[in-house]
Design brief:
The protein has 5 domains: about 70 residues, Phenylalanyl-tRNA Synthetase, Chain B, domain 1; about 190 residues, 3-Layer(bba) Sandwich (Phenylalanyl-tRNA Synthetase, Chain B, domain 3), CATH 3.50.40.10; about 55 residues; about 210 residues, 2-Layer Sandwich (BirA Bifunctional Protein, domain 2), CATH 3.30.930; about 90 residues, 2-Layer Sandwich (Alpha-Beta Plaits). The radius of gyration is 37 Å and the shape is elongated. It starts with a strand and ends with a strand. The relative contact order is 0.07. It is built from 20 helices and 31 strands. It has a 7-stranded mixed beta sheet with strand order 18-22-23-27-26-25-24. It has a 5-stranded mixed beta sheet with strand order 4-7-10-11-12. A hairpin with a 7-residue loop joins strand 24 and strand 25. It has about 700 residues and is of the alpha+beta class.
Length: about 700
């Protein structure tokens, strides 16, 4: 937004040094992007945030500067005189508000006998410096009022309004309107329009129509000043693909109290520039009330939040300079923000204003006290469990990542059906861009994009990343269209970093499997591990899955090189990925961890080598051995796997190390042999296993 220093001086009636003012505005939190000289004047260009529509005018900026300078803003006397209601002897303007939600207030004034022509050079120069194209004295008067007070206005040729009637309504199906820029625009019932007795003549809050615009032959003008609903204006602008200086302000929220004041100001300017006489109006239709909003604020709490000591009296004076009405209350202060500050809704908003007026540069840089609370303090059990998962994976050398829930549909498609994401992702109806237009149903997309980004920037050669996030699936009904699921993803791999004299490989599938098994132990879970079936595309080689009480807990496998290549990950980079359902983890009952004293005597170690069919899973063998050897068998470990010439075709040799212990005494050879023979018998009968 552009501002003229000379115009701001007229409002404040003080001398302002431009560089000093720019510095004060910057310290007050505003971003002055440009300060240039033009014809003896200074032009400020300031970034205005969307929550501050009150700053989109010279009046608004002046109100903002006054408290920064330690003053309370008062409207200049000349403007107070011009903003009083004009008196006209004619009948009221015919105004019908058929959509009172879309238009709360509408002021109409009829001026007759105008002479349309060019504006004086001073006004032309002022508009040009602010980036507005001069048109004629009527239109220039409305644009000047817009820049001065922030209230959009529009002037109609009254002789071209059928029935001399103004109706604010929704557009009818299949209606069209040719706007001032000469483009014919198709309308819909979601578009708010200004209409006469039979047709739309303007897009409410956006742009007027070509047919009723002010031209050289215009003699009678209907001046419009209104308040339009921000949502309706924004929606209408998107439908007709049109934006303007007016819609820019209405979309952010104009001030309803400014509607009649701007009408008076613009009408007097038209009378001065184009002559004529007010014959009808001002007619003020709609809801005139501005409901005050009150906020309770505790001065002591404000000081605690800001980290400074500002007296209660000084806080009150700061707020009164902003235009707030402040009175004492039981909790401290009761603050009523001015009607133009729609962004002040809660006490924290007032804290921000106090910090701005006190001066950001005067607030010391200190670290806030952080009280680290134990996990037992967390009310929700699943939060504590996820924190344990984070701590364990970080202790294993992992790095946590946080990626976007919204992804590009092509990126999601490139991931194939990895991690069971076989369904199409949910698409947003109103996405801000194609890059963020679908909801992810797997965390794989973010993991692969993170790996690719780091590889391309040479910031890492190997990876051990994890993420705890939500994935999204279609809901069971229109009333519940989206189902969110908490999910854990891990991705390891890359190329090994060089080590002197040591030949070692990078992380692989067994490495990832080992991390997950240790994680399950930490959580007190014992899911069943088995080869995955029907996993779909995206995986390469062996694919494993864990099931908990028959439900799929997660999968673990090698990412197909073609999928990695689609994410621009260099050929030869091996990646191994796992994704777990944390909702299922949260529902699982953790196993009871029993604590027993250390054995006083060493365990008895026996090795067991058996030959079984290749399709027999290791997990089933291990569980069978453990159950058959109980209670003396304490631990079972597979330490050798052989498939080759020494065993028959279709067979494999597996060697387990078994640890027997009674805990408080030395086992006899007969006890160990009996348990060992029982294990061999179970394996022989259930799996047709033979001793090797």
């Amino acid at each position: 937004m552009r501002y003229l220093l000379s115009w701001v001086k007229e409002f404040l009636e003080v001398s302002l040094h431009p560089e000093a003012l720019a510095e004060r505005l910057t310290l007050g939190g505003m971003e002055v992007t440009r300060l240039e000289e033009a014809a003896g004047d200074r032009i400020f260009e300031i970034e205005v945030t969307p929550n501050r529509p009150d700053l989109l005018s010279h009046l608004g900026l002046s109100r903002e500067i006054a408290p920064v300078l330690g003053r309370t803003f008062h409207l200049p006397r000349r403007l107070r005189r011009e903003m009083v209601f004009l008196r006209a002897s004619g009948e009221p303007v015919s105004i019908r508000l058929e959509d009172t939600k879309g238009c709360r207030r509408y002021v109409g004034i009829v001026i007759e006998g105008v002479e349309v022509g060019p504006s004086p050079q001073k006004i032309v120069e002022r508009l040009t410096r602010l980036g507005v194209r001069p048109v004629n004295n009527i239109v220039d008067a409305t644009n000047l009022t817009l820049l001065e007070l922030g209230q959009p206005l529009h002037a109609f040729d009254l002789d071209r309004l059928e029935g001399e009637l103004v109706r604010v309504r929704r557009a009818l199906p299949k209606e069209t309107l040719v706007t001032i820029d000469g483009v014919s625009r198709a309308l819909s019932p979601d578009v708010l329009v200004i209409a006469d007795a039979s047709r739309p003549v303007a897009l409410a809050g956006i742009m007027g129509g070509k047919e009723t615009e002010v031209r050289a032959s215009t003699k009678r003008v209907l001046l419009e000043s209104a308040w339009f609903d921000p949502v309706r204006v924004r929606r209408g602008g998107r439908i007709v693909k049109l934006s303007s200086e007016s819609s820019y302000r209405f979309e952010r929220g104009a001030d309803p109290a400014m509607v009649p004041m701007a009408a008076m100001r613009s009408a007097r300017m038209i009378l001065k520039l184009a002559g004529g006489k007010v014959t009808r109006g001002p007619t003020d239709a709609g809801d005139f009330r501005v409901v005050p909003h009150r906020i309770s604020m505790n001065p002591a709490r404000a000081n605690e939040v800001l980290g400074v000591q500002i007296s209660s009296g000084q806080q009150r004076r700061f707020l009164e300079r902003l235009g707030c009405k402040v009175s004492p209350s039981a909790r401290g202060l009761r603050v009523e923000p001015p009607h133009w500050r729609s962004d002040l809704r809660i006490a924290e908003d007032l804290h921000e204003e106090l910090s701005r007026l006190f001066g950001y540069d005067r607030i010391p840089s200190t670290l806030p006290p952080l009280a680290r609370r134990p996990l037992s303090w967390v009310e929700e059990p699943w939060i504590a469990r996820e924190e344990r998962i984070r701590q364990f994976l970080a202790a294993c050398g992992g790095q946590e990542i946080c990626t976007y829930s919204l992804v590009h549909p092509e990126s999601h498609g490139r991931a194939g059906s990895l991690a069971g994401a076989v369904r199409a992702p949910l698409a947003l109806k109103n996405a801000i861009s194609l890059e963020y237009s679908v909801l992810r149903n797997t965390l794989l997309v973010g993991a692969l994009e993170t790996v690719a980004r780091n590889l391309n920037r040479k910031s890492a050669a190997s990876f051990h990343l994890f993420e705890l996030g939500r994935v999204y699936h279609p809901g069971p009904s229109p009333s519940n269209p989206v189902v969110e699921k908490r999910t854990l993803s891990l991705i390891v791999g890359g190329t090994p970093e060089p080590a002197w004299g040591v030949g070692r490989k990078g992380p692989d599938l067994l490495h990832l499997k080992g991390i997950l098994e240790r994680l399950f132990e930490q959580l007190g879970m014992d899911p069943a591990l088995q080869p995955a079936e029907g996993a779909g595309s995206g995986w390469s080689g062996e694919l494993l899955e864990w099931r908990l009480n028959g439900e799929l807990l997660g999968r673990c496998g090698r990412v197909d090189p073609r999928v990695a290549s689609a994410f621009e990950i260099s050929e030869g980079t091996e990646l191994f990925y796992a994704e777990l359902d944390l909702e299922l983890v949260a529902k699982a009952e953790p196993a009871i961890v029993s604590v027993r004293p250390l054995a006083k005597v060493p365990p008895v170690v026996r090795d067991l080598a058996v030959v079984v069919a290749r399709e027999v899973p290791h997990e089933e063998l291990r569980r069978a051995i453990q159950e058959a050897g109980a209670p003396l068998l304490k631990e079972t470990h597979l330490f050798d796997l052989y498939q080759g010439k020494q065993v028959a075709a279709g067979k494999k040799s597996m060697t387990f190390r078994l640890l027997y212990s009674a805990g408080d005494r030395t086992l006899t050879d007969e006890e160990v042999s009996a348990a060992h023979e029982k294990i061999v018998g179970v394996l022989s009968s259930r799996f047709q296993a033979a001793l090797r």
